[in-house]
Protein backbone atom coordinates (compact mmCIF):
# COMPACT_ATOMS: atom_id res chain seq x y z
CA UNK A 1 0.00 0.00 0.00
CA UNK A 2 1.33 3.42 -0.98
CA UNK A 3 1.15 6.08 1.70
CA UNK A 4 1.16 9.63 0.36
CA UNK A 5 3.24 12.03 2.39
CA UNK A 6 1.66 15.46 2.55
CA UNK A 7 4.07 18.31 1.95
CA UNK A 8 3.71 21.31 4.19
CA UNK A 9 1.77 24.18 2.67
CA UNK A 10 2.84 26.75 5.23
CA UNK A 11 4.13 29.94 3.67
CA UNK A 12 6.80 32.25 5.11
CA UNK A 13 3.95 34.50 6.26
CA UNK A 14 2.29 31.59 8.09
CA UNK A 15 5.53 30.72 9.88
CA UNK A 16 6.24 34.33 10.80
CA UNK A 17 2.73 34.75 12.18
CA UNK A 18 3.06 31.58 14.27
CA UNK A 19 6.30 32.86 15.75
CA UNK A 20 4.78 36.25 16.59
CA UNK A 21 1.82 34.58 18.28
CA UNK A 22 4.05 32.14 20.17
CA UNK A 23 6.09 35.02 21.62
CA UNK A 24 2.95 36.96 22.59
CA UNK A 25 3.51 39.87 20.23
CA UNK A 26 0.25 39.36 18.33
CA UNK A 27 -2.95 38.01 19.85
CA UNK A 28 -5.28 36.34 17.29
CA UNK A 29 -8.94 37.31 17.47
CA UNK A 30 -10.35 34.75 15.05
CA UNK A 31 -10.57 37.30 12.21
CA UNK A 32 -7.66 37.40 9.77
CA UNK A 33 -5.73 40.64 10.03
CA UNK A 34 -7.27 41.74 13.35
CA UNK A 35 -4.97 41.32 16.35
CA UNK A 36 -4.42 42.29 19.91
CA UNK A 37 -0.90 43.41 20.76
CA UNK A 38 1.38 42.23 23.54
CA UNK A 39 3.26 44.48 25.96
CA UNK A 40 6.66 44.23 24.28
CA UNK A 41 5.14 44.85 20.85
CA UNK A 42 3.34 47.96 22.12
CA UNK A 43 6.50 49.28 23.74
CA UNK A 44 8.31 48.97 20.42
CA UNK A 45 5.45 50.69 18.56
CA UNK A 46 5.60 53.59 21.02
CA UNK A 47 9.37 53.84 20.52
CA UNK A 48 9.07 53.88 16.71
CA UNK A 49 6.30 56.48 16.96
CA UNK A 50 8.51 58.70 19.12
CA UNK A 51 11.44 58.23 16.75
CA UNK A 52 9.35 59.42 13.80
CA UNK A 53 8.34 62.42 15.88
CA UNK A 54 11.96 63.27 16.58
CA UNK A 55 12.61 63.43 12.84
CA UNK A 56 10.34 66.47 12.72
CA UNK A 57 12.19 68.34 15.48
CA UNK A 58 12.76 71.88 14.26
CA UNK A 59 9.85 71.83 11.81
CA UNK A 60 7.03 74.24 12.50
CA UNK A 61 4.40 71.52 12.64
CA UNK A 62 0.92 71.40 14.15
CA UNK A 63 0.24 68.15 16.02
CA UNK A 64 -3.26 66.68 15.48
CA UNK A 65 -4.58 63.32 16.67
CA UNK A 66 -7.72 61.54 15.49
CA UNK A 67 -9.91 58.55 16.36
CA UNK A 68 -10.11 55.69 13.84
CA UNK A 69 -13.27 57.17 12.28
CA UNK A 70 -14.11 60.26 10.23
CA UNK A 71 -17.32 61.85 9.03
CA UNK A 72 -19.06 60.16 6.13
CA UNK A 73 -19.39 63.53 4.36
CA UNK A 74 -15.65 64.10 4.67
CA UNK A 75 -14.92 60.57 3.49
CA UNK A 76 -17.21 60.90 0.46
CA UNK A 77 -15.61 64.18 -0.56
CA UNK A 78 -12.15 62.56 -0.59
CA UNK A 79 -13.05 60.25 -3.49
CA UNK A 80 -11.67 57.23 -1.64
CA UNK A 81 -14.64 54.99 -2.41
CA UNK A 82 -14.40 55.87 -6.10
CA UNK A 83 -10.80 54.69 -6.23
CA UNK A 84 -10.57 52.04 -3.50
CA UNK A 85 -14.01 50.50 -2.82
CA UNK A 86 -12.38 47.15 -2.04
CA UNK A 87 -10.69 48.66 1.03
CA UNK A 88 -13.61 50.77 2.30
CA UNK A 89 -15.47 50.11 5.56
CA UNK A 90 -18.19 52.05 7.33
CA UNK A 91 -19.89 51.97 10.70
CA UNK A 92 -23.41 50.59 11.13
CA UNK A 93 -25.71 51.23 14.09
CA UNK A 94 -29.05 49.98 15.36
CA UNK A 95 -31.66 52.74 15.09
CA UNK A 96 -34.91 50.84 15.71
CA UNK A 97 -37.46 50.65 18.51
CA UNK A 98 -38.25 47.81 20.93
CA UNK A 99 -40.12 45.74 18.35
CA UNK A 100 -37.32 46.16 15.82
CA UNK A 101 -34.88 45.07 18.51
CA UNK A 102 -36.88 41.89 19.11
CA UNK A 103 -36.95 41.14 15.38
CA UNK A 104 -33.20 41.65 15.19
CA UNK A 105 -32.57 39.28 18.10
CA UNK A 106 -34.78 36.66 16.45
CA UNK A 107 -32.95 36.91 13.14
CA UNK A 108 -30.97 33.71 12.49
CA UNK A 109 -27.39 33.64 11.21
CA UNK A 110 -28.73 32.35 7.89
CA UNK A 111 -30.91 35.48 7.69
CA UNK A 112 -27.95 37.75 8.40
CA UNK A 113 -28.31 37.89 12.18
CA UNK A 114 -28.82 41.14 14.04
CA UNK A 115 -26.41 42.88 11.66
CA UNK A 116 -29.07 42.77 8.94
CA UNK A 117 -31.05 45.25 11.05
CA UNK A 118 -28.22 47.77 11.32
CA UNK A 119 -28.15 51.02 9.34
CA UNK A 120 -25.18 53.04 8.03
CA UNK A 121 -24.03 55.67 10.50
CA UNK A 122 -22.67 59.10 9.67
CA UNK A 123 -19.07 57.97 10.22
CA UNK A 124 -16.64 55.83 8.21
CA UNK A 125 -13.51 54.02 9.31
CA UNK A 126 -10.43 56.09 8.52
CA UNK A 127 -8.32 54.63 5.68
CA UNK A 128 -5.25 56.83 6.26
CA UNK A 129 -4.41 59.13 9.15
CA UNK A 130 -4.09 62.19 6.90
CA UNK A 131 -7.68 62.00 5.63
CA UNK A 132 -9.35 63.80 8.58
CA UNK A 133 -6.77 66.60 8.30
CA UNK A 134 -7.90 68.07 4.97
CA UNK A 135 -11.44 69.19 5.85
CA UNK A 136 -10.18 70.72 9.10
CA UNK A 137 -7.48 72.74 7.36
CA UNK A 138 -9.91 73.74 4.60
CA UNK A 139 -12.42 75.09 7.13
CA UNK A 140 -9.83 77.56 8.45
CA UNK A 141 -9.65 79.51 5.21
CA UNK A 142 -6.62 80.34 3.12
CA UNK A 143 -3.23 78.97 4.06
CA UNK A 144 -0.48 81.29 5.33
CA UNK A 145 2.10 82.44 2.80
CA UNK A 146 4.60 79.80 3.89
CA UNK A 147 2.06 76.96 3.69
CA UNK A 148 1.36 74.60 6.56
CA UNK A 149 2.59 71.38 8.15
CA UNK A 150 0.54 68.92 10.21
CA UNK A 151 1.69 65.90 12.22
CA UNK A 152 -1.18 63.40 12.15
CA UNK A 153 -1.69 59.97 13.73
CA UNK A 154 -4.53 57.49 14.14
CA UNK A 155 -5.57 53.89 13.82
CA UNK A 156 -6.58 53.15 10.22
CA UNK A 157 -8.73 50.43 8.65
CA UNK A 158 -8.52 48.77 5.25
CA UNK A 159 -10.62 45.76 4.37
CA UNK A 160 -8.00 43.28 3.15
CA UNK A 161 -8.12 40.22 5.46
CA UNK A 162 -4.97 38.11 5.30
CA UNK A 163 -3.04 35.60 7.39
CA UNK A 164 0.10 37.61 6.61
CA UNK A 165 0.75 39.66 9.78
CA UNK A 166 2.08 42.51 7.64
CA UNK A 167 -1.37 42.98 6.09
CA UNK A 168 -3.39 44.01 9.13
CA UNK A 169 -6.92 45.28 8.68
CA UNK A 170 -6.51 47.78 11.52
CA UNK A 171 -3.15 49.44 12.07
CA UNK A 172 -1.53 52.73 13.04
CA UNK A 173 -0.06 55.41 10.80
CA UNK A 174 2.05 58.41 11.74
CA UNK A 175 2.02 61.01 8.98
CA UNK A 176 3.40 64.39 8.17
CA UNK A 177 1.08 66.38 5.89
CA UNK A 178 2.30 69.36 3.88
CA UNK A 179 0.25 72.16 2.28
CA UNK A 180 1.67 74.73 -0.12
CA UNK A 181 3.19 75.16 -3.57
CA UNK A 182 4.43 72.41 -5.90
CA UNK A 183 8.04 73.26 -5.07
CA UNK A 184 7.31 73.10 -1.36
CA UNK A 185 5.65 69.68 -1.68
CA UNK A 186 8.46 68.21 -3.79
CA UNK A 187 11.06 69.50 -1.31
CA UNK A 188 9.01 68.08 1.57
CA UNK A 189 8.77 64.71 -0.18
CA UNK A 190 12.51 64.54 -0.81
CA UNK A 191 13.41 65.71 2.70
CA UNK A 192 11.24 63.11 4.38
CA UNK A 193 12.54 60.29 2.18
CA UNK A 194 16.08 61.21 3.26
CA UNK A 195 15.03 61.38 6.91
CA UNK A 196 13.26 58.03 6.68
CA UNK A 197 16.21 56.28 5.06
CA UNK A 198 18.45 57.60 7.82
CA UNK A 199 15.99 56.27 10.40
CA UNK A 200 15.91 52.80 8.84
CA UNK A 201 19.70 52.79 8.67
CA UNK A 202 19.82 53.63 12.40
CA UNK A 203 17.49 50.68 13.00
CA UNK A 204 19.80 48.40 10.96
CA UNK A 205 17.00 47.45 8.59
CA UNK A 206 17.69 46.62 4.91
CA UNK A 207 15.51 49.35 3.37
CA UNK A 208 15.28 50.51 -0.24
CA UNK A 209 13.18 53.14 -2.01
CA UNK A 210 11.13 52.64 -5.14
CA UNK A 211 8.48 54.37 -7.22
CA UNK A 212 5.05 52.99 -6.33
CA UNK A 213 1.34 53.29 -7.01
CA UNK A 214 -1.86 52.94 -5.02
CA UNK A 215 -4.14 49.88 -5.47
CA UNK A 216 -6.68 51.62 -7.70
CA UNK A 217 -9.90 49.73 -8.49
CA UNK A 218 -11.81 49.19 -11.72
CA UNK A 219 -11.21 49.48 -15.44
CA UNK A 220 -9.41 52.81 -15.13
CA UNK A 221 -6.94 51.38 -12.60
CA UNK A 222 -4.08 50.63 -15.06
CA UNK A 223 -4.20 54.16 -16.46
CA UNK A 224 -4.25 55.71 -12.98
CA UNK A 225 -1.37 53.51 -11.81
CA UNK A 226 0.70 54.43 -14.88
CA UNK A 227 -0.02 58.12 -14.39
CA UNK A 228 0.98 58.03 -10.73
CA UNK A 229 4.25 56.31 -11.59
CA UNK A 230 5.12 58.41 -14.64
CA UNK A 231 4.65 61.63 -12.64
CA UNK A 232 6.66 60.18 -9.73
CA UNK A 233 3.90 61.03 -7.28
CA UNK A 234 4.42 58.12 -4.89
CA UNK A 235 7.53 56.54 -3.41
CA UNK A 236 7.80 53.80 -0.83
CA UNK A 237 10.45 52.52 1.53
CA UNK A 238 10.53 48.73 1.24
CA UNK A 239 11.81 46.21 3.79
CA UNK A 240 11.57 42.39 3.57
CA UNK A 241 9.39 41.19 6.45
CA UNK A 242 7.15 38.14 6.08
CA UNK A 243 8.72 36.94 2.84
CA UNK A 244 12.36 37.74 2.04
CA UNK A 245 11.53 37.73 -1.67
CA UNK A 246 8.62 40.19 -1.40
CA UNK A 247 9.54 43.36 0.51
CA UNK A 248 6.80 45.37 2.17
CA UNK A 249 6.18 49.11 2.25
CA UNK A 250 6.97 50.58 5.68
CA UNK A 251 6.88 54.20 4.58
CA UNK A 252 5.08 56.10 1.84
CA UNK A 253 5.83 59.56 0.40
CA UNK A 254 3.06 61.03 -1.70
CA UNK A 255 2.40 64.13 -3.80
CA UNK A 256 -1.36 64.57 -4.26
CA UNK A 257 -1.07 67.59 -6.61
CA UNK A 258 -4.44 69.40 -6.08
CA UNK A 259 -6.63 66.33 -5.48
CA UNK A 260 -7.47 67.10 -1.85
CA UNK A 261 -7.55 70.85 -2.45
CA UNK A 262 -10.23 70.33 -5.09
CA UNK A 263 -12.14 67.91 -2.87
CA UNK A 264 -12.27 70.21 0.16
CA UNK A 265 -11.60 73.70 -1.22
CA UNK A 266 -8.14 74.20 0.29
CA UNK A 267 -6.74 77.50 -0.94
CA UNK A 268 -3.24 78.94 -0.84
CA UNK A 269 -2.61 82.46 0.39
CA UNK A 270 -3.09 83.84 -3.15
CA UNK A 271 -6.45 82.11 -3.53
CA UNK A 272 -5.23 79.39 -5.87
CA UNK A 273 -5.79 75.72 -5.13
CA UNK A 274 -3.11 74.45 -2.74
CA UNK A 275 -0.94 71.43 -3.43
CA UNK A 276 -0.59 68.75 -0.75
CA UNK A 277 1.68 65.85 0.10
CA UNK A 278 2.21 63.41 2.94
CA UNK A 279 4.93 61.25 4.43
CA UNK A 280 3.47 58.26 6.24
CA UNK A 281 4.90 55.45 8.36
CA UNK A 282 3.23 52.13 9.19
CA UNK A 283 4.16 51.74 12.85
CA UNK A 284 3.23 48.06 13.18
CA UNK A 285 5.07 47.19 9.98
CA UNK A 286 8.28 48.80 11.21
CA UNK A 287 8.06 46.85 14.47
CA UNK A 288 7.39 43.64 12.52
CA UNK A 289 10.50 44.38 10.45
CA UNK A 290 12.53 44.83 13.64
CA UNK A 291 11.25 41.52 15.01
CA UNK A 292 12.00 39.75 11.75
CA UNK A 293 15.56 41.07 11.36
CA UNK A 294 16.68 41.37 14.99
CA UNK A 295 14.80 38.59 16.75
CA UNK A 296 11.65 38.15 18.82
CA UNK A 297 13.12 39.54 22.04
CA UNK A 298 13.48 43.36 21.87
CA UNK A 299 15.73 43.24 24.92
CA UNK A 300 18.26 41.29 22.85
CA UNK A 301 18.22 43.61 19.83
CA UNK A 302 21.60 45.15 18.90
CA UNK A 303 22.51 47.92 21.32
CA UNK A 304 22.76 50.47 18.52
CA UNK A 305 19.17 49.70 17.53
CA UNK A 306 17.95 49.95 21.12
CA UNK A 307 19.80 53.25 21.57
CA UNK A 308 18.10 54.63 18.44
CA UNK A 309 14.67 53.57 19.72
CA UNK A 310 15.14 54.37 23.40
CA UNK A 311 17.74 57.18 23.58
CA UNK A 312 19.13 57.97 27.02
CA UNK A 313 17.36 60.85 28.65
UniProtKB/TrEMBL annotation:
GO annotation (BP), single: tRNA aminoacylation for protein translation
Record-linked InterPro entries: aa-tRNA-synt_IIb, aa-tRNA-synth_II, aa-tRNA-synth_II/BPL/LPL
Ligase recorded as keyword: yes
Signal peptide: none
Annotated Aminoacyl-transfer RNA synthetases class-II family profile domain residues: 156-311
Keyword DNA-binding: no
Keywords: Aminoacyl-tRNA synthetase, ATP-binding, Cytoplasm, Ligase, Nucleotide-binding, Protein biosynthesis
Record-listed E.C. numbers: 6.2.1.n2
Pfam family, one: tRNA-synt_2b
One MF annotation (Gene Ontology) recorded for this entry: aminoacyl-tRNA ligase activity
Protein name per the record: Amino acid--[acyl-carrier-protein] ligase
Provenance organism: Falsiroseomonas algicola
Amino acid sequence: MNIAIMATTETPADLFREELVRHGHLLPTGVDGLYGRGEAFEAAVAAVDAMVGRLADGDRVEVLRFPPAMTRAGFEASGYFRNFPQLTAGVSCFCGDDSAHRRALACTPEQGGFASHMQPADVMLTPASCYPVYPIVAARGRLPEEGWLVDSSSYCFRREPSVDPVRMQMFRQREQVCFGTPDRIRAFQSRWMDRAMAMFAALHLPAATDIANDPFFGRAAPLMRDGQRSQRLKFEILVPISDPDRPNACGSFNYHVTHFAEAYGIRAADGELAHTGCAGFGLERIVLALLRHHGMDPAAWPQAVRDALWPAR
